[in-house]
């Protein structure tokens, strides 16, 4: 198994400290702050541990308040807000160094039948036809900034195959739309909770960048200060995240130093798995005070 995937599974397996209290750690990746998708996924796992198995998650809403410190554990405290006839609600606070760094509210529902419809998946090239791996970094991104090439070349538990990388190769102002194929790099099996947690993990990747397309910038641009502020996700159908999924993204607005991006995750056969929305800080980086 790919080591980074094994690390992801270990990262999502929280330690139970006490009733409603869990502890998570961060993989040793040399990061300056904890990846937001990790905190989302770990908080979801903590909430899930307090909910009956027959009630899968159907939505979550989260706020990032302080950068996470990857060198120390994160403590997750779960508040059992409500246990209803069909729905269960949980609130999770993530704490480090005595301060709340993140909050998440999640809702779980007994599975039931009802009305069903969905939007159509965008018509894009199949992932097998797109450049990836060494071809992506050596040919497509040969003239991109070093930080861009390093990001796409490094090993990670998530595999990407972007439909286009034009925003890294030009400073032209582009339409704020992105289509990218994603999957976990190794098979996670049929564990629904693990697949949903991994889906939450990867949902935080690439979103913020889309809000910068209209400005001819990317999150790797040193002129930009960027950070996730909040994150919402709705789980429509079960997922197998080791199979290709299309992450279709668009950014309807940026204003006030913030950019909003929406995402739709489709299975390769066209089923809408989940919807995502995120607002992030995107402001011109301020010069240090003299």
Explained architecture:
With 290 residues, this protein is of the alpha+beta class. It folds into two domains: 1-111, Thiol Ester Dehydrase, Chain A (Roll), CATH 3.10.129.10; 126-290, Thiol Ester Dehydrase, Chain A. Helices cover 20% and strands 37% of the residues. The chain has helices at residues 3-11, 36-48, 133-140, 146-153, 166-169, 192-203, 207-210, and strands spanning 15-18, 21-24, 57-64, 74-83, 87-96, 99-109, 158-162, 177-184, 224-235, 245-255, 258-267, 272-284. It has a twelve-stranded antiparallel sheet. Helix 2 (36-48) packs antiparallel against helix 6 (192-203) and helix 3 (133-140) packs antiparallel against helix 4. It is globular, with a radius of gyration of 19 Å. It starts with a helix and ends in a 6-residue tail after the last strand. The mean pLDDT is 91.
Instruction: Indicate the radius of gyration in whole angstroms.
Output: 19 Å
Strand content: 35-45%
> Which fold name fills CATH's third level, the topology of the largest domain?
Thiol Ester Dehydrase, Chain A
What overall form do the CA principal axes indicate?
globular
Sketch the topology as an H/E string, one letter per element: HEEHEEEEHHEHEHHEEEE
- Strand line-up across the major sheet: 1-2-4-5-6-3-9-12-11-10-8-7
Main structural class: alpha+beta
CATH hierarchy, class of the largest domain: Alpha Beta
Give unreliable regions as ranges.
none
The helix tally amounts to 7
The amount of helix comes to 10-25%
Overall pLDDT score: 91
Distance between the termini: 51 Å
Q: What is the CATH superfamily classification of the largest domain? A: Hotdog Thioesterase
């Amino acid at each position: 198994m790919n080591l980074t995937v094994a690390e992801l599974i270990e990262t999502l397996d929280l330690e139970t400290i006490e009733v409603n209290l869990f502890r998570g750690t961060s993989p040793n990746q040399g990061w300056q702050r904890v990846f937001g998708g990790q905190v989302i996924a770990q908080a979801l796992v903590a909430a899930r541990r307090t909910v009956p198995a027959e009630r899968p998650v159907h939505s979550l809403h989260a706020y990032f308040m302080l950068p996470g410190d990857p060198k120390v554990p994160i403590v997750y405290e779960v508040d059992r807000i409500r246990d209803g006839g069909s729905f269960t609600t949980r609130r999770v606070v993530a704490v480090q160094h005595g301060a709340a760094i993140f909050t998440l509210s999640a809702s779980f529902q007994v599975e039931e039948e009802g009305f069903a419809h969905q939007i159509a998946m965008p018509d894009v090239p199949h992932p097998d036809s797109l450049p990836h791996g060494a071809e992506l970094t050596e040919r497509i991104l040969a003239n991109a900034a070093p930080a861009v090439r390093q990001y796409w070349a490094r090993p990670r538990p998530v595999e990407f195959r972007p439909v286009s990388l034009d925003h890294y190769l030009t400073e032209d102002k582009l339409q704020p739309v992105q289509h990218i194929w994603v999957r976990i790099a190794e098979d996670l099996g049929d564990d629904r909770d693990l697949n949903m947690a991994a889906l939450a993990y990867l949902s935080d990747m690439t979103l913020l960048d889309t809000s910068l397309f209209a400005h001819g910038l990317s999150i790797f641009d040193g002129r930009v200060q960027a950070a996730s502020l909040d994150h919402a996700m709705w789980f429509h159908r079960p997922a197998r995240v080791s199979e290709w999924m299309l992450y279709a993204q668009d950014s309807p607005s940026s204003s006030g130093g913030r950019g909003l991006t929406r995402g739709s995750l489709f299975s390769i056969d066209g089923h809408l798995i989940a919807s995502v929305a995120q607002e992030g800080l995107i402001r011109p980086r301020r010069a240090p005070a003299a």
